[in-house]
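The protein record reproduced below.
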Amino acid sequence: MISKRIFKTLFLLLFLFSSLLFSIDKVQANTIVELDESHLSDGYVSTNLEETKNSAYVIVISKDKESYNYSVVDGGKYPFILGNGTYRIMIGEKVKGNKYLSILQKDIKVDMKDETSAYLQSNKAIDWENEDSRILKKAKELTKNSKTNLEKAKAIHSYITKNYTYDNKKAVRVSKDYVPNLKDFYKIQKGICFDYATLTAVMLRSVGVPTKLVKGYDSNNPNIYHAWNQFYDESTEQWVTIDTTYDATVKASGKKIKFKKSVEDYIVEKAY
């Protein structure tokens, strides 16, 4: 869990990027940007970026007044995690400070074969395809005898909650732009909720389980920003809430844990 102040600052900055893109006129830029739309039915769009100057870019993916922002890289994958429908895609080039120049705007109609497929993809937030091979091997090993998503989730949940501990000192000093380094987390087996939730998502997605990395608040601790997960149970066609951070702490105290959490106990702000 990380302080509300730190993450609120981060998200305000991200939303500011989105609003700035709307406020600046579209002009010709010294960059060639293309959207690869060949994987829309799989739940994502990717970018081909030919730079003619050293610049930074942000992509904003919006639907029904909700937006997600990502840094743009060549070959990057950006998921349609708001379900089927029409999305507005915008790409902005950083010009100065937090100001962005809109260089591409496009509306795309998305009709995924399976809306859960967006939560299987490897992307900047959950880059399981390029993650430490030891993590992927461990996930495969843990689930080798598992046949369903529920069985796979329980196996990975059991491993993480048994072997990893919460780092209170890290939670106090973590920066607003913190990004988990799973290679380090896997090695030292100690971290914060963002580390736990990212590792859980990476491991589950790598073995074919649609998984969300969710950010928001625990209803019982509304002043502490938190991260947890939801995975898709194909037998019930429902998303199941799990919290490896909380359960690792409870298990360490010798108490029994409840694998499935109540949706009412969490306040969702964003789900990746």
In short: Residues 4-29 have pLDDT under 50 and may be disordered. The longest strand covers residues 221-233. The two ends are 17 Å apart (CA to CA). The chain has two domains: 8-119, 128-271.
